[in-house]
Target: Zinc finger FYVE domain-containing protein 1
Amino acid sequence: MSAHTQTVEKGQNTTLLCQESYVCSGTDEAIFECDECRSLQCQRCEEELHQPEKLRNHERTRIRPGHVPFCDFCKGANGNIMHASMTRQIAAVRCQVCKINLCVECQKRTHAGGNKRKHPVTIYHAGKAQEHEEEEVMDEETKRRKMTEKVVSFLLVDETEEIQVRNEEDFIKKLDCSPDQHLKVVSIFGNTGDGKSHTLNHTFFYGREVFKTSPAQESCTVGVWAAYDPVCKVVVIDTEGLLGATVNLSQRTRLLLKVLAISDLIIYRTRADRLHNDLFKFLGDASEAYLKHFTKELKATTARCGLDVPLSTLGPGVIIFHETVYTKLLGSDHPSEVPEKLIQDRFRKLSCFPEAFSSIHYKGTRTYNPPTDFSGLRRAVEQQLENNTTRSPRQPGVIYKALKALSDRFSGEIPDDQMAHSSFFPDEYFTCSSVCLSCGCGCKKSMNHAKEGVPHESQSRCRYSHQYDNRVYTCKACYERGMEVSVVPKTSASTDSPWLGLAKYAWSGYVIECPNCGVVYRSRQYWFGNQDPVNTVVRTEIEHVWPGTDGFLKDNNNAAQRLLDGMNFMAQSVSELSLGPTKAVTSWLTDQIAPAYWRPNSQILSCNKCNAPFKDNDTKHHCRACGEGFCDGCSSKTRPVPERGWGPAPVRVCDNCYENRGIQLDVAELPSDEEGGTLIARKVGEAVQNTLGAVVTAMDIPLGLVKDAARPAYWVPDHEILHCHNCRKEFSIKLSKHHCRACGQGFCDECSHDRRAVPSRGWDHPVRVCFNCNKKPGDL
Model:
């Protein structure tokens, strides 16, 4: 301490006096220390100074015996202001002119020369109680630092909105916390380059680089990153900055609102000398989108997952952290008004209403010399986290389920031509992207609503398009009685048998049948003078045509297909009834012309190699070399067998005889003259069978052409069906195609073996339908 410095008090001070001299003139004993006023205050001065609403939230602590305040602007050895997370120095003196507390180093640096060396000072002497208190503070600070030493961040959601944790257990494992621990979520938002990651590192993790920072121009945070703060018991989430160069701007902006929806407290970080309109527009649009789209979904998640903690009682709290360099903080020019009131006035002027947020607080700091002081922000965050009146802590599993539900609901690409760029969070980010093919209007339902069986919906009326024929008929008589019953033109009435319905259709045309009124119209009921049904018995309504849906009044006349189905059924029935006798006669005839060394068909019950038992429809094959019976897979190879009289053309042999082709038969095994005659009969029989097979194959070709001509309009053409619509198996000669009578798609037999009536398509009797259509409730 300089020898020229005037000392007002010498020796140990047993009583600290008020340093404000606002009411008491500096004669009363100090009772409180105010961190933001940077002074010791008596009872009267403390009450009078903090009467304005703006100053009521100042941090004040009651002075204990032997109390000594901290240095007000302490600097380290390198000349920088020490950060709040670093150890603060105890003040040694208080300058009565400058009205600041100084440690020894700061007093030497600031008051060693010039006029300040003559300023009177008061000397502090720390008592044992104060020293013990400081040691306890140091121990607590050290414990907190050690608790955050092993904290690491992880990628929670990437830039394409894909969650990067597999399940709830993986989420808890990466957080490194207990599954039963109740947590809150704190996230940060702001423009790119404003130091969001840096702010989280110094506010929660004592300056450790838990979240990556970088001096490069490119954004160092892509997607959403998370880490667990074991001191405050919170999940800290770092987000990608706004106004950055990105290729998926719409999806990344929507991702920010998902993070906001699961947060209990959000920090909007801005480093600008004045608050920009972008801040208020972002919070206002986020509030509107939260109330419009996310509140309902969060309530549904609570009910669907059986969560005990409500997720949407009210939106998160907001802290606007404003850092300036050259300008004053908000409200400094208006001591009578609090910053929060000025912010609300700014929202009203911009017609933005942040109604979804439970609270909005302003916390500013002015950085004369780096680094930034985050102590005020940390105190404000801790104060908000202690408030459980609107947002209560919850288990990490609940946090993951909420994020998963929002990601499943609001996902998918957003077309650029549908964007409304006047808002941060337009409705297109969260509503269905389907557009009516007839009138071009969009669906107003939430995204991915089709997964829950909810149909498309639009508030505007549609117009008729001949291409899609989007008319719907309703029975006029039922409508006049207060009911709206849809009807469709079809081949026959539901009370007619299939063959009688075809006969009536050939005579009097198609019918329109109402479930309540019966048959109300026949197209050729009279020889002449038949009127249009629209003018007589039905009403017409125009409905929207959504992508992936069928038309409305497509031709449901399926008379030709019914006729083909009847013919195929008769042919199949005759074939199945005659299958048993035919197989028996064929087997007996084959044994009569078989060579003597062949095993009879009646004795072949299973394949001689793989031992697979033969079924009624399976074909038995004889090896021309050994004469045993094999399945097709074990006797598919061919080679000449001259020793048995089969040559020089290759014939069917089993795998064993094919590999042992060099072994010669004994003379006793060579065919005799009688066996040679039988061999010739066998060759003739095989030639006849091959010829008949070719004739049957040739007859199948015109049948395929007839089937395509008889196909109803809503059926997918056969040449476009390459694989089963359900199991994705590719169709081949062995795997037949079948059309579902309800949706018209192509399926294999296993995926479409159910039978059910489809009145909307004109099938009043049980017909083939696929698994998906069969699961639909009500009439098809």
